[in-house]
Amino acid sequence: WVLEGRSDFLEGRNPTFLNIVENEIDLAMIEAINRIGHVMGIKTIAEFVENEAILTKIQEVGVDYGQGYFLGAPRPLLINDVFANNSPILSC
Length: 92
Hints:
By secondary structure, the protein is an alpha/beta fold.
């Protein structure tokens, strides 16, 4: 997880998300870190959302945002997308 200085987001940059469906310890870790972020008033972002099962788990846990190939392949961000409210940032 990454939190640098004062931030509005806590981002999970750890392949732990890949195992949360099968591994109770990894799921418990994600739940705890997500809870800490929310207690601090920070939105949470899960990386490695690679399939529907992972997406379902992070939604159950209450993670705010997700990134990963299941949600969409990386692509260049065009400044017009942001201003047209077509931002590629996906909410869970």
